[in-house]
Design goal:
The protein has about 180 residues and is of the alpha/beta class.
Length: about 180
Amino acid sequence: YNRAMAYLLLGQWEQGWEDYEQRLEWAPFRKGLSNLPIWDGKPMPGKHLLVESDQGLGDVIMCMRWRERLEDESKMHVTWRVQRPLISLFPNEWEGTRCVPDDEPTPAGMDCQIPVMSLPHRLRVTPAYLAGGAPYWNDFTWNPVEGKVAICWAGSPTHENDAYRSLPVGVVQEL
């Protein structure tokens, strides 16, 4: 896991994403995953894949950009099981993508699962792909006001690293 972080920070994404899969051997990263087998990245035409929100809200938002590529490459019907606060962003049949809340039982009929943060590895995401790939957010889901910037200034206060990734409210107000 630590080696994965080092590779990713160095921009060696292929090896970094591969090593990052070791997180699934650690209980905190398996929390919330179903008992379904983990998808190995090979096409399985006609089968049903469950994308599990194994980490934070931002990770799901970041990875949602690959939903079309995932469906194209996997040849599967894909259901995203996301945190309840994201359901308003990704309604059940959003742009043809089925989303269900992760605090409900695993949907019936699923053949395998993939943790959302395993998608960069399975889809071979590289800096070059991101430079010419799908936008982080598109015009169908977000229409920014020209000249405005949105800032996510705080993560979950229960996250063990929150002190290093969230800003006090006063700092944001001063901006």
